[in-house]
Amino acid sequence: MTQTTTPARPKRAAKPNGQWKVDGKAPLNPSEEMKAADNGLNVRQRIEEIYSVQGFDSIDPEDLHGRFRWWGLYTQRAQGIPGGKTATLSPEELEDRYFMMRVRIDGGALSTEQLRVIGQISKDFARDTADLTDRQNVQLHWVDIIDVPEIWRRLESVGLHTTEACGDVPRVILGSPVAGIAKDEIIDPTPVIAEISRRYIGNPEFSNLPRKYKTAITGHPSQDVVHEINDFALIAAQHPELGPGYDLWVGGGPSANPRLGERLGAFVTEEQAPDVWEAVTSIFRDYGYRRLRNRARLKFLLADWGTEKFRQVLQDEYLGYALPDCDLPPQPTEAGDHSGVHEQKDGRFYIGLTVPAGRVSGSKLLALADLVEAKGSTRLRTTPHQKILALDIAHDQIKDFVGEARSLGLEAYPGLLKRSAIACTGIEFCKLAIVDTKDTMIDAVAKIEERLADHDGKLPRALSLHVNGCPNSCARIQTADLGFKGQLITNEAGEQVSGFQVHLGGTLAGRENGEAAMGRTVRGLKVAADDLPDYVERVVKNYSASASEGESFAAWAHRAEEDELK
């Protein structure tokens, strides 16, 4: 008897990923269709000639919910909508008729003149709102579309702009806040940042990327630009033959699928850096995954390719030459947030000021500009840690400057938690948020520091507390000692309340822990917003009781028993 066999079913063809160099440029989702139909940069003309004249109701929905981002504009959350509605309402139902506007500040460099212009715009057009972000930008709220052309005119009159501050584009370039002034700087990244910005920002060749694309460049040994969570990063390195230059990292990003960037083991000279940026960005543009938005960041391509293939494609297809190998730069020996008073290489001083939750105001920015000028300076820097630095302060002006800044709510010597506390925009203005962040964090930090003031046990040298209003991790919760991700939780009374999932022991490369690591989550551990001070006090005291001598909080949190973390 002859036995028949069923023929093997042919393998189902893999769906295309929307990689331009592999699958062609046919758009595979509505976002790609929008970008293919009209470049986001082109919407500026419509804003100036139509929308600002005819008002909010004249705005084409595709521009409103898409291309406006290319010019730093998002509709903000309508007031009074609770967090429980975030996932159930459409963007149109969630949004207000006003905008968040993001002022792009590549490298964080600001003059007092520029700061004063931002402050006056805030007072005139944004209800005196202003936030310092953890990407060195300034965000304004309550912006009316009819005022946008005048805001642009004022910003551009002093060399500022909002070009590609949002959208599927190269976002703001993070730069060392002490570039060009630090005594121990290895290489000044200012020329590289300026050249990348000049060549590529607003360039149509790079204004349609698969998703947002983040850059960080530093020449300081503290590695002060959170390079491990950027798509493209250069950190200072010394080559034995070529001298000072940069170590190349790619593919980092937090959000709902966090991934730390990886070294390609390649050394980049100052002269090569803009070309290498163009090449890596072109790889993302040409090979990045465009079909699914949740897989459209460079980190997913790197995960599939690996660093060896990525470097090979970079050199063979895009640069046309091999990059020298590079050793891992030394571990930082100091904090990279630049809080406090520090001597510059010219003998003057820079002073790092902590701004609670990054929340300032136009009035406060104007007052700070006046203060800096009164002490003989005209230069400031924003930081990736929601701080602002005043540069070029003479030694005999330090005491007065610190005291007068404190009267503005800007602290040069913040407490343990206030120094490293970061919060995203939260439910006050963000359409994605579920809970309040800034007020919650400011209140919690004040209470915790008061309770720990008389604590007799040991406390960590540093302790970062980051609060985020949704899973997207704009406040980098996975890389904080204490990271809190907003969500609605059910309390013991059965009520649905604002709360947080907890991430513990995250860290970026630094003096505390060496290598970067994502935080640990404890199954079932959630904290109500009202209980946040109690929780942090409890877990810090547990650390105090059981950490070994010199052990950082992050190291302890990764080895502690679950009961100690609850």
UniProtKB/TrEMBL annotation:
<keyword id="KW-0411">Iron-sulfur</keyword>
<dbReference type="GO" id="GO:0050311">
    <property type="term" value="F:sulfite reductase (ferredoxin) activity"/>
</dbReference>
<protein>
    <recommendedName>
        <fullName>assimilatory sulfite reductase (ferredoxin)</fullName>
        <ecNumber>1.8.7.1</ecNumber>
    </recommendedName>
</protein>
<dbReference type="InterPro" id="IPR036136">
    <property type="entry name" value="Nit/Sulf_reduc_fer-like_dom_sf"/>
</dbReference>
<keyword id="KW-0408">Iron</keyword>
<keyword id="KW-0349">Heme</keyword>
<keyword id="KW-0004">4Fe-4S</keyword>
<dbReference type="InterPro" id="IPR045854">
    <property type="entry name" value="NO2/SO3_Rdtase_4Fe4S_sf"/>
</dbReference>
<comment type="similarity">
    <text>Belongs to the nitrite and sulfite reductase 4Fe-4S domain family.</text>
</comment>
<dbReference type="InterPro" id="IPR006066">
    <property type="entry name" value="NO2/SO3_Rdtase_FeS/sirohaem_BS"/>
</dbReference>
<dbReference type="InterPro" id="IPR006067">
    <property type="entry name" value="NO2/SO3_Rdtase_4Fe4S_dom"/>
</dbReference>
<keyword id="KW-0883">Thioether bond</keyword>
<keyword id="KW-0479">Metal-binding</keyword>
<feature type="domain" description="Nitrite/sulphite reductase 4Fe-4S">
    <location>
        <begin position="167"/>
        <end position="320"/>
    </location>
</feature>
<dbReference type="Pfam" id="PF03460">
    <property type="entry name" value="NIR_SIR_ferr"/>
</dbReference>
<keyword id="KW-0560">Oxidoreductase</keyword>
<feature type="region of interest" description="Disordered">
    <location>
        <begin position="1"/>
        <end position="35"/>
    </location>
</feature>
<comment type="function">
    <text>Catalyzes the reduction of sulfite to sulfide, a step in the biosynthesis of sulfur-containing amino acids and cofactors.</text>
</comment>
<dbReference type="InterPro" id="IPR051329">
    <property type="entry name" value="NIR_SIR_4Fe-4S"/>
</dbReference>
<dbReference type="Pfam" id="PF01077">
    <property type="entry name" value="NIR_SIR"/>
</dbReference>
<feature type="domain" description="Nitrite/Sulfite reductase ferredoxin-like">
    <location>
        <begin position="342"/>
        <end position="404"/>
    </location>
</feature>
<dbReference type="InterPro" id="IPR005117">
    <property type="entry name" value="NiRdtase/SiRdtase_haem-b_fer"/>
</dbReference>
<feature type="domain" description="Nitrite/Sulfite reductase ferredoxin-like">
    <location>
        <begin position="96"/>
        <end position="157"/>
    </location>
</feature>
<feature type="domain" description="Nitrite/sulphite reductase 4Fe-4S">
    <location>
        <begin position="419"/>
        <end position="564"/>
    </location>
</feature>
